[in-house]
Amino acid sequence: MNDIVNANMNEYWNGEGGQKWLRFQERMDVHLLPFGQKVIDEAAISAGEAILDVGCGCGDTAIRMAREAGPDGRVLGVDISEPILARARTRAESASHKNVSFETADAQTHRFAEAAFDLVVSRFGVMFFDDSLAAFRNIRRALKPGGRMVFICWQGTKENEWIRKPLEVIGLHVPLPEPPGPEEPGPTAFCDSARVKRILSGAGFSDIAITSCDTAFSLGNGLDNAVEFAMQMGPASGAIVQSEADEATKSRIAADMCEALAAHETPDGIVLGAATWLVSARNS
Fold first, then answer.
1. Domain residues for 228?
2. Which residues pair with 212 in a beta bridge?
3. Do 31 and 113 touch, CB atoms closer than 8 A?
4. What's residue 4's pLDDT?
5. 235-253, pLDDT tens digit by residue?
6. Cα 170 to chain center, whole Å?
7. Minimal CB count within 10 Å: which of 95, 120, 130, 256?
């Protein structure tokens, strides 16, 4: 059953958001590789395991986990964006991975086979549910007794320089939208670790561990790439779209963005600070 109730997210990721992600897919794979690796390392995958990847995107993490699980294991990646999943399927076929598949599904409501998976993982894919408690209850039902879950999510805007700095620049030119409420879905919806623990406990998970992970986040190999990324992806891009800024305003924003990001240029590109929570739990 494909019963998607998160209407706003569904519309966005099957429309403009999905197309943006596809345009930046290769770059996003590089940017997010360290975060996906943190999840894989924490999960400690064993050969032969059945794994569910929630919000799998273009399949980078799912394909890497399929290698870890081996030919006797299997990985199912689910996402609400059909355009993004089409790219994931193509990549898996090109890599000749037979033990990974992808399905269009909303993990909040999808009727997964009960107790079918040893492990559930997510790289920045669990912060967008309309009803997080219902979503994690549904996800837990898909886990075997004692099965484990590992995901990574963003901390708050204040802690994430890569989000905060572009927003500061844009705010000099256009009004910034009101931030989402503490219970509303969005990239930083799980910034409060106490809320995350409350949701997971309420959904029936046990052995909940939440670890703060501070790291670097590369916006691009050079200033032009970094400015393009900052203005077209993530929370800052949404502020530009909502303001309906004209081309002259966008040009001024780009110039100021270039100046602001130049201070963060390193041999590894334009690098800003990032803060995440690495979360693990078990199906009690």
1. 7-283
2. 277
3. no
4. 46
5. 788 888 888 889 999 999 9
6. 23
7. 95
